[in-house]
Design a protein that fits this description.
49% of the residues lie in helices and 7% in strands. The chain has 22 helices and 10 strands. The protein has a two-stranded antiparallel sheet with strand order 1-6. It has a two-stranded parallel ribbon with strand order 2-10. This is RagB/SusD family nutrient uptake outer membrane protein. InterPro entries: SusD-like_N (IPR033985), SusD_RagB_dom (IPR012944), TPR-like_helical_dom_sf (IPR011990). Belongs to the SusD family.
């Protein structure tokens, strides 16, 4: 009965307040809401911090599966004793179940929801920030970060799904959440608007708190959008602005481009990276524990992680470098041994018990299953490779070569021999693969260059022809539906379809 009285009272207040909003609107002062929380600068700083939070589970748990393992760079190490692992296997095997444009895959669902968490939090900040007075420089910075992060999330949704609801204001109820699907062009248009605004509002890296979005990061994101859209000249302009800013450069050693678990974070090569902190505060990651082949004993794991309390891991792990990516490195490429290590698993059911693993994320740390290295989203090396590509696609092949060669020189390789536009295009494509290996770039490169069917069909044929080369024990094979779904977009999450008539 008390609930009914309270509901009737709330409805009565909402109805009578229509006559005189300023006088009759009553906001509960004991409950945290947008009306009571957003009153000062510190509130907006806290709210903007919250917009970044979904990036941690996104890059720890989902992005590597949907963007890297869904390619020819990595695969899963089959453990037939572990049972069903359909979510990751279906992604790696290009066998995502699609029922009328919907999927029950929980990794797809989590990625979708994490992006909308970012969007919802950014919308809340942007909807009220101009109503509160505080210093303009701080306000512009916070608004710029909110625009950047909302644009980043919509860019992800456009890349992964091709269509998604477009929300630019806080959603007050379930009905308001059920919006029609915006198509790729509309999503990309909003990304462009958000990031153009972010570029105007955000400070340079040197003037920004480490780890936050900067004008350089915003330029890189917008350039990435233009590369997808094949707007080569517009991408070139933005990328040249990053290069000439003097704020970024390649680290002398490729290994130093990546943070340790406690240091070297947001270094001069970093354009934008997801922040993790090792320890008990809940800000840590554990990527290497998701990637290391298993079953692995504590003694086999200890030299890789350096922990004092190493523990055995069973199950079936993922994102294991394929023979394809291992063969992609040229002789003498310093990046190979920095990016890929090997481990022998005494308990493996394979005849060949030696497996590769992603070494660039195997940074020593204190406690088992608790790491603090940041995840690189954009590095200056990719700025150089994008710029080389944008120039080459405009027929400026000679101008492209020096930017490609900066990356190759750091890797200990000679200058490219590519002279024609076609040869340079292939050289850049191959360079991106090894320079950005395991940084969640490969799937997007296959899509935007139109090479999914060409490369993944051949990759799948190799796995089916020789499963043992791709980490299957003797007698085990990929499922019958492996490599039957080469669509460039993921189906939308089926769980969300229950909330909207538009899916």
């Amino acid at each position: 009965m008390k609930k009914k009285i309270l509901l009737a009272s709330l409805i009565g207040l909402s109805v009578t307040s229509c006559n005189n909003d300023k006088f009759l609107t009553v906001v509960p002062q004991t409950a945290l809401s947008s009306a009571t929380f957003f009153t000062k600068e510190a509130d907006f700083q806290q709210a903007v911090n919250a917009i970044y939070v979904p990036l941690r589970p996104m890059y720890n748990e989902a992005a590597w599966a949907l963007e890297e393992m869904h390619s020819d760079n990595t695969y899963y190490a089959r453990n037939v004793l572990f049972g069903a692992v359909d979510n990751t296997q279906n992604i790696a095997d290009f066998a995502i179940l699609n029922a009328g444009g919907l999927t029950a895959n929980t990794i797809v669902l989590n990625m979708y929801r994490l992006n909308y968490q970012i969007i919802a939090r950014a919308n809340q900040v942007l909807s009220v920030i101009d109503k509160v007075e505080f210093p303009a420089a701080s306000k512009n910075n916070l608004k710029g970060q909110a625009h950047f992060l909302r644009g980043f999330a919509y860019f992800k949704l456009a890349q992964l799904f091709g269509k998604a609801p477009l929300h630019l204001a806080p959603v007050a109820d379930r009905e308001g959440a059920a919006k029609p699907l915006a198509q790729t062009a509309e999503l990309q248009g909003q990304v462009e608007k958000d990031i153009q605004e972010a570029i105007k509002l955000l400070p340079l890296k040197k003037d920004q708190e480490a780890g936050r979005a900067t004008s350089g990061a915003a330029r890189m994101l917008l350039a990435n959008l233009y590369m997808v859209q094949k707007k080569w000249g517009q991408a070139e302009t933005l990328l040249r602005e990053i290069v000439t800013s003097g704020e970024y450069s390649l680290m002398a050693d490729y290994n130093d481009a990546f943070s340790t678990t406690t240091g070297n974070k947001n270094n001069r090569e970093s354009v934008f990276e997801v922040q993790y902190i090792e320890g008990a505060a809940g800000l840590n990651g554990n990527q290497i524990y998701r990637f290391i082949p298993t079953p692995i004993t504590a003694d086999e794991l200890r030299p890789i992680t350096g922990t004092s309390n190493a523990q055995a891991i069973s199950g079936e792990n993922n994102n294991v470098p394929t023979p394809d990516i291992i063969a992609a490195y040229e002789p003498g490429d310093k990046r190979k041994d920095i990016s890929i290590g090997s481990v022998t698993l005494s308990q493996s059911l394979r005849a060949n018990k030696t497996y590769p693993y992603i070494k660039k994320y195997a940074r020593t740390h204190a406690q088992h299953n608790n790491t603090g290295q940041n995840w690189p989203v954009y590095r200056y090396a990719e700025v150089l490779l994008f710029l080389a590509e944008a120039l080459n696609e405009q027929g400026k092949t000679g101008e492209a070569a020096p930017f490609l060669n900066q990356v190759r020189t750091r890797a200990g390789l000679g200058a490219t021999t590519a002279a024609s536009q076609a040869d340079m295009r292939e050289a850049i494509f191959k360079e991106r693969r090894v320079e950005l290996a395991f940084e969640n770039k490969r799937w997007y490169d296959l899509v935007r260059t139109g090479r999914v069917n060409e490369i993944i069909a051949a990759h799948g044929a190799r796995i089916k022809a020789n499963p043992q080369n791709y980490y299957f024990p003797s007698g085990a094979v990929p499922p019958p539906n492996a490599f039957t779904n080469l669509e460039i977009y993921y189906p939308l999450p089926a769980v969300e379809a229950a909330l909207t008539p538009h899916f």
